[in-house]
């Protein structure tokens, strides 16, 4: 497959800027020895307060790490206390922004329309939107997985500019797998990724859909990475808990390098 793998670490609300400095230094040293494939890209998504610190180290030490954020406003500027805009992130050399993570959808009322507007803002600012989708436990047990994914993906990408596919990644993160220790099977991850790609094809066209990377996220660990990446439509992983430790995250990257030599 021509699509390069993306291994992204979502730190969530962990690590102050000093801890971030140590983590990214440690990670950088390890990756210099481990990241031997040009077909694997590594990104980290620290909290806002760490971005400047991480960006400075990545730049000064030329670390093979792309900078990601976890969220941003759909608006550009104004009286929106507590918000951070896409252009502010782009100024910090942020390359990826998670959009519509299930925790934002569930805890901060981020609906499909806001996800779409935020993805638009991210892409408009010259960054890559990593749109997160996935079904809940109830939706899964009611057999609604495909329906939920169709709705979420269609809503997120409808109305994006024609060339937006280049700046779009979709992360399939079943809510029941996040932080539960119970990852989806490789078969389920591949099945969902195939479905997502077919929805992308119907909205953006087949050629565009083939170029978009689809990640799996939810209880990814070094031990299940290779298997999860074995699906031809699974182009990387979004890692939460296991990205908070440099050694563990590097093992995940090593597994990806074995799959994408
Ligand atoms: P987890 O989180 O790896 O801790 O399950 C993944 C995520 O929420 O992005």
Describe the overall structure.
The protein is an alpha/beta fold and 261 residues long. The chain has one domain: Aldolase class I (TIM Barrel), CATH 3.20.20. The chain is built from eleven helices and eight strands. It has helices at residues 17-34, 51-60, 86-91, 102-107, 112-124, 137-141, 145-157, 186-204, 206-211, 222-229, 246-259, and strands spanning 5-10, 40-45, 66-69, 96-99, 128-133, 168-172, 213-217, 236-239. It has an eight-stranded parallel barrel, surrounded by six helices. The longest helix is centred in the last third of the chain and has 19 residues, at 186-204. The radius of gyration is 17 Å and the shape is globular. 2-phosphoglycolic acid binds at residues 10, 173, 178-179, 217-220, 238-242.
What's the short story on this structure?
With 261 residues, this protein is of the alpha/beta class. It has helices spanning 17-34, 51-60, 86-91, 102-107, 112-124, 137-141, 145-157, 186-204, 206-211, 222-229, 246-259, and strands spanning 5-10, 40-45, 66-69, 96-99, 128-133, 168-172, 213-217, 236-239. Strands 1-2-3-4-5-6-7-8 form an 8-stranded parallel beta barrel, surrounded by 6 helices.
The SSE order reads EHEHEHEHHEHHEHHEHEH
Radius of gyration: 17 Å
Cα shape: globular
The low-confidence parts are none
Bound molecules: 2-phosphoglycolic acid
Offer a few descriptive terms:
261 residues; TIM Barrel; eight-stranded parallel beta barrel; 11 helices; 45% helix; binds 2-phosphoglycolic acid
């Amino acid at each position: 497959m021509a699509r390069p793998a993306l291994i992204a670490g979502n730190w969530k609300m962990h690590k102050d800027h000093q801890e971030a400095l140590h983590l990214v230094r440690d990670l950088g040293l390890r990756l210099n020895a481990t990241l031997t494939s040009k077909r694997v890209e590594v990104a980290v998504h620290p909290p806002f307060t760490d971005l400047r610190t991480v960006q400075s180290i990545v730049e000064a030490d030329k670390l093979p790490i792309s900078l990601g954020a976890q969220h941003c406003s759909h608006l550009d500027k104004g009286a929106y206390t507590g918000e951070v805009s896409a252009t502010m992130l782009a100024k910090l050399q942020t390359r990826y922004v998670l959009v519509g993570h299930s925790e934002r959808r569930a805890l901060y009322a981020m609906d499909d329309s806001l996800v779409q507007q935020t993805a638009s803002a991210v892409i408009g600012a010259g960054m890559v939107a990593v749109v997160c989708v996935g079904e809940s436990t109830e939706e899964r047990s009611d057999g609604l997985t495909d329906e939920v994914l169709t709705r979420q993906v269609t809503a997120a990408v409808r109305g994006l500019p024609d060339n937006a596919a280049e700046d779009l990644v979709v992360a399939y993160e079943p809510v029941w797998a996040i932080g539960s220790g119970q990852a989806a099977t490789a078969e389920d991850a591949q099945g969902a990724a195939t479905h997502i790609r077919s929805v992308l094809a119907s909205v953006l066209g087949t050629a565009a859909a083939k170029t978009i990377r689809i990640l799996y996220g939810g209880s990814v660990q070094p031990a299940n990475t290779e298997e999860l990446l074995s699906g031809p439509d699974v182009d990387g992983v979004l890692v939460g808990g296991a990205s908070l430790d440099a050694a563990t995250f590097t093992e995940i990257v090593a597994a990806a390098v074995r799959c994408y030599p």
